[in-house]
Design brief:
With 425 residues, the chain is α/β, with parallel strands linked by helices. It folds into 2 domains: 174 residues, no CATH class; 227 residues, no CATH class. The protein has 17 helices and 12 strands. A hairpin with a 4-residue loop joins strand 11 and strand 12. The longest helix has 21 residues. It is elongated, with a radius of gyration of 29 Å.
């Protein structure tokens, strides 16, 4: 482990590199978690106003994200962070340049001019103030993790140090850096998480299904987003929809589910999840003839497009919202005591054509030939489906009368003009 040393309790000597981008000169080094915990504060220093300082402090302290980072540090052996950006002001920090003169001996030739003076040691005398411009939640997570497990204090995190002036223009400059770093930071999209995450059991099972389950291997779009593109004539659904459906199925009514997905379970548990996912899809395919037709076809036959008809909407299960509804209702019915086979059979009794009642007008706009899906419409449609196949909508703390009123409001009809269908006795 590389050591950050000090000749006094408050002095720090940080090995690093000096670099420049735009008009920012910055230094790349690292700090031990212990030093982060003891010396780095949050970005409330960017504001003179106590109200704004308190707002920043409260938002980070109350954040679920910083708590999840603490758990990550405590529980994940293969842990790694991207760099913190730390602003420095006050004190007399200095840069001690180190000369590199062995490049000739190594056969590298002379160093380029821009590399001269880049390597050195950044020395803090202890009177400086250090605060996180980017990585506040990581800082809080580190502090909490070290408090609970002090031996983590010897671990190291990469840091970018930038100079800061506490005058008006300096505050403006650093606040601009704060917002710029957050504005232009691109979060990893959900498709990338599903493709790469080695801890999330749902992502792992989703990948296994796409690699080995014939229907999903041959007829799942891996393009970004949950929605199936209008030009897609081959695929049943999207990788995000497969993930979301399994997420609902496995995680239903588990309060610890989000935390559970952050830690890779045992291979045995993953095999159990995969077997359960296979059984779910086997059951759905066996009850829905269009899926059996699709499974027996080749992508070039474009069976999916036939069942996702632009003029009449097509089959509910060939739409992402429909597949999510079907899996959700299956899970609700199983929670009421039905077997998987019984639950799928019950759902299969419901009408699946989007042009039929009750989906026409609620999920399908027949006049404009398009889906009309919003969170509210999907919620109501799922409850209508559950009620219609004999499930109890009381799980949602609502009544049939209240559901009718909500449905009527969405489709702009008098309440007495809508009726809740029943397809399963």
């Amino acid at each position: 482990m590389t050591e950050v040393t000090g000749t006094s309790p408050r002095e720090l000597k940080v090995p690093g590199l000096r670099a420049q981008m735009g008009d920012w000169v910055y230094y790349i080094g690292f700090l031990r978690f212990r030093d982060v915990s003891e010396r780095v504060s949050l970005a409330q220093e960017l504001h003179a106003s106590k109200v704004l300082k308190d707002l920043i402090q409260r938002e980070v302290d109350e954040s679920v994200h910083s708590q999840s980072i603490k758990r990550y540090l405590l529980q994940q052996d293969q842990r790694l962070f991207n760099a913190l950006v730390i602003a420095v002001y006050g004190g007399t920090p200095s840069w001690a340049e180190l000369k590199v003169d062995d490049t000739g001996k190594l056969g590298m030739g002379p160093l380029p001019v821009y590399m001269k003076g880049a390597l050195g040691v950044l020395v803090f005398d202890g009177s400086e103030k250090l605060f996180a411009v980017d990585g506040q939640h990581r800082v809080v997570g580190i502090k909490r993790a070290v408090a609970e497990k002090p031996e983590l204090g010897e671990e190291e995190v990469c840091v970018l140090f930038v100079g800061h002036s506490n005058e008006r223009k300096g505050l403006q400059r650093t606040r601009r850096l704060f917002t710029t770093l957050n504005r232009y930071a691109k979060p990893v999209n959900k498709t990338e998480i599903i493709a790469l995450d080695e801890d999330d059991s749902v992502a792992i099972v989703t990948r296994r299904l796409l690699e080995g389950y014939p229907l999903l291997k041959n007829f799942t779009s891996i393009k970004k987003g949950k929605g199936i593109q209008a030009s897609d004539r081959r695929n049943l659904t999207t990788i995000v929809t497969v993930y979301d459906a399994l997420d609902k199925y496995f995680g239903w009514n588990r309060k610890d589910w989000n935390d559970f997905k952050k830690q890779r379970p045992s291979d045995r548990k993953l095999d159990e999840f995969y077997k359960s996912a296979e059984e779910l899809w086997d059951g759905i395919v066996s009850e829905f003839e269009p899926l059996r037709e699709l499974l027996a076809s080749t992508p070039e036959e474009e069976i999916s497009f036939r069942h996702r008809n632009r003029n009449i909407g097509g089959h509910l299960i060939f739409r992402p919202v429909g597949l999510l509804m079907v899996v959700s209702v299956i899970r609700y019915l199983m929670a009421e005591g039905k077997t998987l086979k019984q639950a799928i059979s019950a759902v299969a009794d419901a009408p699946m054509s989007l042009s039929e009642y009750p989906w026409s007008g609620l999920l399908w706009d027949s006049a404009n030939h398009r889906m009309t899906v919003s969170g509210e419409r999907q919620k109501v449609a799922t409850r209508i489906l559950l009620h219609g196949v004999g499930g109890r909508i009381g799980i949602f703390k609502t009544t049939a009368d209240e559901l009718r009123a909500e449905w009527a409001g969405i489709i702009d009809q008098p309440k007495n003009k809508v009726r809740l269908p029943v397809w399963k006795n």
